[in-house]
Write a structure and sequence with these properties.
The protein is α/β, with parallel strands linked by helices and 621 residues long. Helix content is 29%, strand content 16%. It is globular and about 70 Å long.
C-alpha cells in the first residue's frame, strides 16, 4: 500500500500549486483530499504524538492552513486563535486580522502555549528578526514556537523595496517573497533572533517508516529544507528539532466536558446551500462550540471553515434499506451528541428523517431547532407535520416572500421568523480591484459570472448551452464559470475567454464581476441583490427544488434582476441575455437593488438572530 495522509486519510497525491518558475514546485506531495503538504503532515504527527491535541491550550496559528484548522479548532476550542494579514483571502471562517509588522509587538508576553506559522517569515515586509522575537516572546514558559521557512542555497538574501515579480522569483524562489533563507548562514541570520538547533533530522522524533507512511519523502528528513519543522521551547535551552518531548503525566488534564455545544445536521447531496446556512450560524456563536453531521458530499467546506464534521452518506448513495439507514442515522447522532456533550441540535433539511425523530423523542433534554426555509413546492406539504418534534422552528427570511405560494405560508403560527441568512456579509466582500487580482482578471475587462449547472439538471444544461452560444458572439467579454468539484466537468474546450473555476465561498469575490447569470437558489439570490450585482436569474424548476421561479419573477417584476424561465425559447434567451449585456440595463438593475436594500435599512443577517436564539435557550436551561 502507498502513503496515506495522516490528516484526512487520503491516498492520492498530486503536484504542488505555485507560479511558473517557482523554485518550490514539487511532484506527488500534495494530498488531493485536504491539500496538505509534507510540513503539514509532519506538524500534525508531532502534535498528536506529543499529546498536544488532547489538552486545552492557548494557540496562535498564523496564516492558518485549511487542512489543519478544523482539527485545531476541535482540539483547542476557544483557545485556538487563527490569524492572518488578510483574513478575507483565507478560505476559512473566524480568522482574525494580524499584521505582523505592526501588531506582533502588541501580542504581549507569556500569552500562548503554542505559536505556529509555516512559510510566513519570508513574506513580512519589515524586520523579520523583530517579528520572530516578538512571536517567541508571546509564548508562556515551556511553550513551543513551531514553524517552517523556505531555503535556497547561496546565502541569505533580501529585498523589501520595489522589485519586478520575475526578479523576486529568480532571487527568492517566489514572486511574493521578501527574502530567502539559506542553510549556509542560518545561524547568523534567523539564528541571531531565535535559539535555532545546529542541525535537523526529522527521524529523531518520527521513525523513518512512519515518515514514509504519511507521504514525507526522504529528501525532507534531514538537513535544513523547505519542510523542516522547527520546534523551539520558550525559556529553555533550544532542543534539537526532532526532540519534542511528550507532556509530563502531571501536566495532563482531562478536557472539561463541553456542555455548551451544538450539533448541526443537514442534507444537500452535491449542493452547499444548507451547509452554508448552518455555517453562517455556527461562525456567529460566541459561547458555543459546534460540530456537524451531514449527508452532503461537500462536507469538506465545513472542515475548511474550522469545524469538526462527520459525513454520513444518504441511503440513496449506499443502497441501504431505509429502516436500517435511519437506525444508523439515529446511532450516529447519538454517538456525536455524547462525544461532544452537545445540549442542542440544529436541523436544516425540509424532510425530517425517522432517525432524527427517534433521537428527539428519546432525548427530552436536548434542545432542538428546525431551520425551515420557505418557498416549498406544494407536494412537500406533508413534511410540515414533523415540526411537532422540535422545540423551535425558525424560518429564514426571503426577499421574495410576497411571491411565496408554498405550504409553509399557512404554517407560521408558531414559527420564529428572522431576516435572510447569508454566510458572508455583503460589506465583507473584497473590493473590485482586490477581487480581480485574486482571481487573475484584467482590471479593465468586462466580466460575467456564470453558475447554472447541477447534476441531473438536463433543462438547465440546455439553457446553459443556449446562453453560451449567445455569449460567444461577445468578443470583449470574459466569462468565469463557477463549477462544483463534485460534478463531472464539461470536457469541451471553453475557449480563451471562458474560464472554469471551483471557489467556495465565491461571494467574497463577486465585486470582480460586471454581471452574473445564475440560478435563483436561496443563497445566490440574496447575495446578488444585496450586492447590487446585475443578474440574470435562470431558475432551477426541478420538481423537488424550492420555488426558484417565484424568486426570479419577484426580482424581475421589481426591477432587481432579469429572469429566463424554463419555458423561454431561443428568441427569449437571445433577448434577455442581450439586455443583460446592455450597460444601461445593468446600471438600472444595480441602482434598483441599492434602493431596495436602502428601503430595508441595509442587510440584516438572520444568522445573528439564530445564533443568539441558540445561546439564549442554553442560558435558560
Amino acid at each position: 500500500m502507498g502513503a496515506a495522509c495522516n490528516i484526512c486519510g487520503g491516498r492520492r497525491f498530486g503536484d504542488t500549486y505555485g507560479q511558473a518558475g517557482s523554485a518550490f514546485l514539487r511532484q506527488g506531495v500534495r494530498c488531493l483530499g485536504c491539500d496538505s503538504l509534507e510540513r503539514h503532515r509532519l506538524l500534525y504527527e508531532r502534535l498528536e504524538r506529543g499529546g498536544f491535541l488532547s489538552r486545552p491550550l492557548a494557540v496562535l496559528h498564523i496564516a492558518p492552513e485549511p487542512c489543519l484548522v478544523g482539527i485545531f479548532r476541535a482540539s483547542w476550542g476557544r483557545g485556538y486563535h487563527p490569524a492572518d494579514r488578510t483574513p478575507a483571502q483565507v478560505p476559512v471562517q473566524g480568522v482574525a486580522r494580524l499584521d505582523l509588522c505592526t501588531d506582533a509587538g502588541r501580542l504581549g508576553a507569556a500569552r500562548y502555549d503554542l505559536v505556529i506559522h509555516n512559510h510566513v517569515l519570508e513574506h513580512v515586509d519589515c524586520d523579520y528578526r523583530a517579528v520572530a522575537r516578538a512571536l517567541h516572546a508571546a509564548l508562556k514558559p515551556g511553550g513551543w514556537h513551531i514553524f517552517s521557512i523556505p531555503f535556497m542555497n547561496g546565502g541569505f538574501r533580501e529585498a523589501q523595496g520595489p522589485l519586478e515579480s520575475h526578479e523576486r522569483t529568480r532571487r527568492f524562489g517566489q514572486a511574493d517573497h521578501m527574502r530567502i533563507f539559506s542553510p549556509d548562514d542560518l545561524a547568523t541570520t534567523l539564528g541571531a533572533a531565535l535559539p535555532l538547533p545546529p542541525d535537523y533530522d526529522a527521524t529523531r522524533g518520527v521513525a523513518p517508516e512512519r515518515l514514509v507512511e504519511i507521504g514525507i519523502p526522504e529528501a525532507a528528513w534531514r538537513g535544513f529544507n523547505n519542510n523542516a519543522l522547527f520546534m523551539l521551547e520558550a525559556s529553555e535551552p533550544a532542543p534539537s528539532a526532532g526532540e519534542l518531548p511528550s507532556p509530563a503525566p502531571a501536566q495532563r488534564e482531562k478536557a472539561p466536558r463541553r456542555c455548551r455545544d451544538v450539533l448541526f445536521v443537514s442534507a444537500n447531496g452535491v449542493g452547499q446551500g444548507h451547509l452554508s446556512r448552518q455555517l453562517a450560524i455556527a461562525t456567529r456563536l460566541k459561547d458555543y462550540t459546534a460540530g456537524f453531521l451531514t449527508f452532503s458530499y461537500s462536507a469538506r467546506i465545513v472542515r475548511e471553515a474550522g469545524f469538526a464534521v462527520h459525513y454520513l452518506p444518504h441511503h440513496a448513495a449506499t443502497g441501504e434499506d431505509t429502516r436500517h439507514w435511519n437506525a444508523r442515522l439515529a446511532n450516529e447522532i447519538d454517538l456525536l451528541l455524547d462525544a461532544r456533550g452537545s445540549d442542542a441540535l440544529v436541523y436544516d433539511v425540509n424532510f425530517v428523517f425517522d432517525g432524527v425523530i427517534d433521537v428527539l423523542r428519546r432525548r427530552k433534554d436536548l434542545r432542538s431547532i428546525w431551520i425551515r426555509r420557505a418557498m416549498w413546492p406544494d407536494h412537500h406539504a406533508d413534511y410540515l407535520g414533523a415540526g411537532i418534534h422540535f422545540d423551535t422552528i425558525v424560518e429564514p427570511g426571503d426577499f421574495a416572500e410576497a411571491f411565496d405560494r408554498g405550504p409553509t405560508v399557512a404554517a407560521r403560527q408558531h414559527v420564529q421568523r428572522v431576516a435572510p441568512v447569508l454566510l458572508t456579509q455583503p460589506h465583507h466582500r473584497l473590493g473590485r480591484d482586490e477581487a480581480r487580482a485574486a482571481l487573475g482578471l484584467a482590471p479593465s475587462a468586462t466580466t460575467l459570472l456564470l453558475e447554472i449547472s447541477r447534476p441531473a439538471g438536463h433543462a438547465l444544461a440546455g439553457r446553459r448551452t443556449a446562453i453560451l452560444d449567445r455569449l460567444s458572439r461577445e468578443t470583449e467579454l470574459e466569462i468565469v464559470e463557477l463549477v462544483s468539484p463534485l460534478i463531472e466537468a464539461d470536457a469541451t474546450d471553453p475557449g480563451p475567454r471562458h474560464r472554469r473555476i471551483s471557489l467556495y465561498p465565491a461571494y467574497p469575490y463577486t465585486a470582480a464581476f460586471d454581471m452574473a447569470i445564475t440560478r435563483a437558489g436561496y443563497n445566490v439570490f440574496h447575495e446578488a441583490i444585496a450586492a447590487a450585482l446585475p443578474t440574470l436569474f435562470v431558475p432551477d424548476e426541478g420538481r423537488d427544488m424550492d420555488l426558484q421561479i417565484n424568486r426570479a419573477r419577484f426580482a424581475e417584476e421589481n426591477g432587481l434582476a432579469l429572469c429566463l424561465p424554463a419555458s423561454g425559447g431561443a428568441a427569449e434567451t437571445e433577448d434577455v441575455v442581450s439586455r443583460l449585456l446592455d450597460d444601461s440595463v445593468r446600471k438600472r438593475l444595480a441602482s434598483n437593488c441599492r434602493a431596495f436594500m436602502e428601503l430595508r435599512g441595509g442587510f440584516e443577517n438572520g444568522a445573528d438572530a439564530i445564533a443568539r436564539l441558540v445561546e439564549r435557550a442554553g442560558d435558560e436551561t
